[in-house]
Design goal:
Two copies of one chain form a homodimer. Chain A is of the alpha/beta class and 218 residues long. Helix content of chain A is 31%, strand content 22%. Chain A contains seven helices and ten strands. Chain A has a six-stranded parallel β-sheet with strand order 3-2-1-4-5-6, with helices on both faces. In chain A, strands 7-10-8-9 form a four-stranded antiparallel β-sheet. In chain A, strand 1, helix 1 and strand 2 form a beta-alpha-beta unit. The longest helix of chain A has 14 residues. Chain A is globular. The C terminus of chain A is likely disordered. At the A-B interface, helix 1, strand 6, helix 6, helix 7 and strand 7 of A face helix 1, strand 6, helix 6, helix 7 and strand 7 of B. The structure holds calcium ion (2 copies).
Chain lengths: 218, 218
């Protein structure tokens, strides 16, 4: 029930930093990288480390991928990251895998390789840049939402038994934004959001943990 | 009353792409770059272009920076972007300037140089990666929120006269998330959010324009 992080460059390091900020025990994180130097950084934060090539079945089996709860792939090169994703998906059909890609053309192949979540930092930056021209607080709000620190955070959870039958607007844990009923998204403004069903997944904004935001979050 | 985009690499291109998706008239966009080849791409989209060095006063004066409504700085190198920001801030003290930086250490200098909004794509990717391990829809929801297409978008606006005195939860245009009263943020859960004041700035989620989302937005 651990989190595997393959590639400990800047994205991988930022991800681990935020996982720790969210309260993840570093002993539940296993970092794989080909560079001993990168691994020293991970080890200094209390993470487990393995020096190896994550595109090999053997390496992923060595970190018990079949028992992992999620995997982060940020190998620095899109081709390498996609090959790691393919390998991991083959070994662990239901594992949530998040991958970073740098080139927009590789977003679809990354999904086809089996990634659950595909993140393109450059696309995202473009969206935030454009959004910032129509409001000076937009990018900061987005950064606050993404980080567990600060004033707010975006949270995903399953509906509670006592919430079933009531509206999304009445949940007590935060501000309800969206329901996933199966894979179908339902917005807060839609008729179906007035009656939560068992098994619904809720996206909500909750209060952050109040810790200082990252520098780009304010 | 135009938008200046200095640097038409991947981030700058993505930003212009999203500005056009938001309905910005390309004739209201002026792209500055040192490369004629990059400018051909911008010109093909209907933008105005200028080949030049944005770190020079002269260049920024040539695009009438004093009349611009906002500026996007993504020169590809942090040192260049920060120098452009300093130059622009000197010429246009109140212009909203959004800058992309790649190195976390440069976020603070970018703010000190006068940037209104500082975006670090790598930090952001790390936040999204970490968030995605606690919910498979988190990163997709964030991408939808950042883009004008898709099902939702994040919007910033001034309070309407008819909303003054009422609660944030009663606004009719979307789901109210945060108020800025002066520079002070007020969350949806706070007592002060129960009574909007004249001059408040509201952050809200509104329905998107329904156009297809970017590939990373699902
Ligand atoms: Ca936060
Ligand atoms: Ca959207």
């Amino acid at each position: 029930n651990h989190i595997i992080v393959t590639g400990f460059g800047t994205s991988g390091q930022e991800a681990v930093h935020e996982l720790l900020a969210r309260g993840t025990d570093p002993r539940e994180i296993v970092v794989i990288d080909g560079s001993e130097k990168a691994l020293e950084l991970a080890e200094a934060q209390g993470c487990n480390v393995l020096c190896g090539d994550s595109t090999r079945d053997r390496t992923l089996k060595d970190v018990a991928i079949h028992r992992a709860r999620s995997m982060i792939v940020s190998a620095g090169r899109d081709d390498t990251s996609i090959l790691i994703t393919l390998t991991a998906r083959h070994l662990a059909p239901r594992l949530p895998i998040s991958i970073v890609v740098r080139n927009e053309d590789n977003e679809l192949p990354a999904r086809q390789a089996g990634a659950t979540t595909v993140i393109n930092p450059v696309s995202f930056a473009g969206l935030l840049l454009a959004g910032s021209t129509s409001g000076r607080h937009i990018a900061d709000y987005m950064a606050d939402l993404a980080a567990s620190g600060g004033r707010v955070k975006l949270n995903e959870r399953t509906v509670l038994p006592e919430e079933v039958g009531g509206p999304l607007s009445a949940i007590g844990t935060g501000l309800g934004l969206r329901i996933y009923r199966g894979d179908r998204p339902i917005g807060f403004w839609e008729e179906e959001a007035k009656r939560l069903q068992s098994g619904d997944v809720i996206i909500e904004i909750t209060e952050g943990n109040g810790l200082p935001e990252p520098a780009d979050g304010d």
